[in-house]
Amino acid sequence: MHMIYNSPVYCVMEIAGFDGAPRGVEILDKLARREIYLEGPLAEAFKSGVAQIVSGEPSVEAIDHFISQYQGLMQQPLALH
User: Fold this and answer.
1) Are 40 and 50 in contact (CB under 8 A)?
2) Each residue of 10-36: pLDDT tens digit?
3) Which of 21, 7, 3 is nearest to 67 (CA)?
4) How many domains does the chain have?
């Protein structure tokens, strides 16, 4: 697990498989205490969108706005261990 983004609202982690290759992305909404795990084409679309934002002059607000588009999919309650 590798944290790739952390703001006051969201945390994004890249999850690697046993072979070390990227497998998916976990997005945590700290305020709503919800999370989602993306893999396959949806994870690739997410990474592509983030890469497009980062290629410019990204701000925390711009990245958070992009991530907020995934809020409707976040149904899993956040459980801290």
Assistant:
1) no
2) 999 999 888 877 789 999 999 999 999
3) 7
4) 1
